[in-house]
TrEMBL record, chains A, B:
One of its GO terms (biological process) is NAD+ catabolic process. The lineage of its organism: Bacteria, Pseudomonadati, Pseudomonadota, Alphaproteobacteria, Sphingomonadales. GO terms for cellular component: cytosol. InterPro entries: NAD-cap_RNA_hydrolase_NudC, NudC-like_C, NUDIX_hydrolase-like_dom_sf, NUDIX_hydrolase_CS, NUDIX_hydrolase_dom, Znr_NADH_PPase. Its cofactor is Mg(2+); Zn(2+). Transmembrane segments: none annotated. Belongs to the Nudix hydrolase family. NudC subfamily. It is an enzyme of class 3 (hydrolase). Keywords: Hydrolase, Magnesium, Metal-binding, NAD. This is NAD(+) diphosphatase. Residues 168-297 form the Nudix hydrolase domain. It comes from Novosphingobium silvae. Its EC number is 3.6.1.22. The gene is nudC. It holds the Pfam family NUDIX.
Amino acid sequence: MSSRFWRPADVLSATRPPIAFAGSRIDRADHIRADPAAIAALQTAGARVLRLDGLDPVLTEQGGLDWGTLADADRGAELIFLGIDEAQRGCFVEVPSDAPSGGPHAGPASWNAMSVLEAGELAAYGGARALVSWHARHRFCSFCGQPTVLAKGGWQRTCSACSSEHFPRVDPVTIMTVEHDGRLLLGRQPRFPAGRYSALAGFVEPGETIEEAVARETFEEAGVRVRDVEYVASQPWPFPSSLMIGCHAYADDPAITIDTTELEDARWFTRGEVVDALGAVGRGESGRAFGAPPAYAVAHLLLRWWVERG
Amino acid sequence: MSSRFWRPADVLSATRPPIAFAGSRIDRADHIRADPAAIAALQTAGARVLRLDGLDPVLTEQGGLDWGTLADADRGAELIFLGIDEAQRGCFVEVPSDAPSGGPHAGPASWNAMSVLEAGELAAYGGARALVSWHARHRFCSFCGQPTVLAKGGWQRTCSACSSEHFPRVDPVTIMTVEHDGRLLLGRQPRFPAGRYSALAGFVEPGETIEEAVARETFEEAGVRVRDVEYVASQPWPFPSSLMIGCHAYADDPAITIDTTELEDARWFTRGEVVDALGAVGRGESGRAFGAPPAYAVAHLLLRWWVERG
């Protein structure tokens, strides 16, 4: 953990917490998505259908995901083929006609799921949630306005009128720690719990690289110019469809000018303050200088990465 | 260039070819997108409007982008605010009512632009192209089917009926070289020019990390299992809206089983064969063993990275 280049592979093989929403053990079986007969053949009595409450997970008394069967499913609902599990069972999730479209933040039920679900189950839930909410937001063709229908086992929607094909969205978001003189730049959004500071973040836009997005967002939000952007790790974050791309960068000038529409504060924290804040998370406390992001967020991992590589 | 960890910053500062479509010098001026008065104030006689032929670039006799003025613009067309150039001029591009939606591959005019345009101009074109084609594909609300209108200077569309907000898509794609015993795995798609082999690639799906997408795509397309995925560099690729995420990984078992719906061949190439193929690109030739991807593709950079880090 102390090597200069701590690869994502190391992150994934580390002890808990791993990257939340990564590590699904469901085989996506991409090759049969376009084969309706093969998907139908998996719709047996043994097939599993993930139960959701809106977009929230439903947990069993044992703290696992609640999987029902096709017998419980609504025959009128659209069905997404998630893949094949280790017992060779087809895994599905329904898109109810009243499925919510999902917001940009994780709610209490999702945070609870992150704390209790085993990694593979949490990943299965996250992938299913992202797909269901995408279908709920794409029942019409953005090209011509006519209704779309589910295709390719739920990995596509096709326009009933103009035949345009639409694919699930994955929105790349850069999230970055910035270092200057042994201290780390973290910011505070107004919606954060009291005392919380976290990594700055923002969507990658058309026409820029990951590194350019890191530099632009850091300058927009905190007025800080960065160099030498390094990739650290990524995380699927299904609220509603982000791919968090965790990076680290360096600043030569520590002067901060915050964008008050995004942040209410940004500060440089010492290594000791970050170590203290990370330690406090495990005790359910806030650190002495600030509260670190929760263990399941990639921002937490970025802080750990910075501390552990020394 | 021979260091073990060749960072994207090095790539960006290297001599030509840099990463095509990166390096725009237009300030996106995100803070004024939501300020119609500020955008209007930039719509002066000095404002620049990028000329496009459909989605293709229009080049001047000197081989630069052809920028017109607002006087040339169609008053009925939607106008996207691209940002502010180094001379403090507002930069815009129109979305004509008949704007094409754009396909998944670069056409001859785009390949020509990659070879003749200066890096900053190519990036300005790429960003503008991705935005125009996104608007052309999102004139209706995917949530309710009613017409959308341009908002926030073209960085959003808003539904005229349900007020849903829609944002430009950026689709993350993994593209990866895989190494085994000093050789590199490359594949050949049927649409490639004769002799061409390139890095395998595929879209990141909901519910997976970048590393998981690399592993899944390599196994799906070539039957090869990988470990220790490393990020190398990224590239915006506006056909129509990809973010190419270039990675390198390692395989323990070289046995190949290709997916014939994606590839017509995949092979392991020696370092000498890759060096020869890269050298041939500059002479407009195919290498002795295979033809390398063109200099402007991130796949070319991945091959160079592998050769140069030794």
